[in-house]
Specification:
rod-shaped, binds adenosine-5'-diphosphate, 12 strands
Length: 447
Amino acid sequence: MIYIAISTWLENQVNDSLRLTATQVASVFYDVEAPQNPLDIADVRLQLESGGLAAQSFLRDRLFFIRLIDPSEQIVLAASADYGIPPSPARSDAASYDTVVVDSAAEMRIYTLPLAYAPRYVFQVGLSLAETRAIQRDVLGILLVLGLCVVALAPLTGWFLAERALLPIRALARTAAEINETDLSRRLDLTAAEVELEQLMRTFNAMLDRIEAAFQRQRQFSTDAAHELRTPLAIMQTGLEVTLSRARGAPEYHAALVSIQEEVQRLTQLANTLLLLARADAHELPLEIRTVDLNLLLLAVIEQFAPAANAKGITLAHHIPPGLSLQADQDRLIQVIFNLLDNAVKYTPEGGQVRVSAEAADHAAAVTIADSGPGIPAEDQAHIFDRFYRADSSRNRARGGFGLGLAIARRIVELHGGTIRVISQPGHGAQFIITLPARVRTPAPLA
Ligand code: ADP
């Protein structure tokens, strides 16, 4: 396209200059005073054939000529130079351009201008196209060389740019490959990142944060579980060693076995709880969803705690409107209420109060278990639903809890698509609020 544009421009330049020259020369011989006067051929000849030598030789190089011809007779009447071009233009009735080849090599552009004031004659101005063709050839040559360079450089440049673009991705891949479970704290360096990659690296780092946190929780969980297993095992070990250290009577053996039975029960409970959590995590805890009468369910669980509450002089009150029903796994829901009531009765001091209430909320049911116990410090509230977390471990271990009750309660409520939260001010009791959708959306979410 560049070549075509330049060629057209060059040819137009030649055409324009030829036309201009022809028009100027024609006007020189036009007698304004007496337009009817015939063209003075002798004068034209004289004018055309004279001219400076220098100009002549300059023009000869370019095969330039001006001539007056009679096309009908095909004769040259006057000419500034003769290059043997026949005086027979393609058209003589209108101004026109021709390209002719002289001496089988030189191309010439010729402009033919019929004279309005002397209709028999036409002026012709011609110029060699050698220079134009030379420039065209040069342009073509330059363009070809440039084109070849582009063709040769394009893959190289492409390769270079791709290499540069891939460099940070390679670095990213290297770092990613170096990160393993023993060194999860490494992160990708964002300072050197290209803008386009920054988002990706941020996402990658955020993912590593989550994986590291999950690993950390997992490690903590294993450590805690081992710790919990060790205590009853150590108690049994010591009990057995003491009992077996010498011969004893039947009542002593009986007492030792009863003590071991208690610890085995505790271990069994722990094992069952861990298994339940593991199955919930692995999405293998199927929910048996059916319509549950909340009123009946709550009253049944409350009744189980009546003896324990009585023994501590705790008032166990409830406010549960009849006819509250929802879709849920009854046994799991009993477990949630049981854990919460167990805590309430366990942590409320003698003479305190525990109150269970329920209400229908917007397409949901809310159950509140409130007590007048010591409450939970604000810094613990965010953690009490974590596994093995005890707000006051020395105090609570003695009371028999593993710190798993609330973790299980939360997991079950979540499986039902509900929420559980705590409101508490230390010294003013604690209030656990469970909200459950009236209908579990997916029939059995993780079955
Ligand atoms: P635990 O078996 O130790 O009771 P939970 O998971 O049920 O474990 O509870 C976690 C911790 O939350 C408890 O150790 C206790 O410190 C605190 N907590 C739970 N419920 C109450 C409550 N009603 N009053 C005061 N503290 C509570």
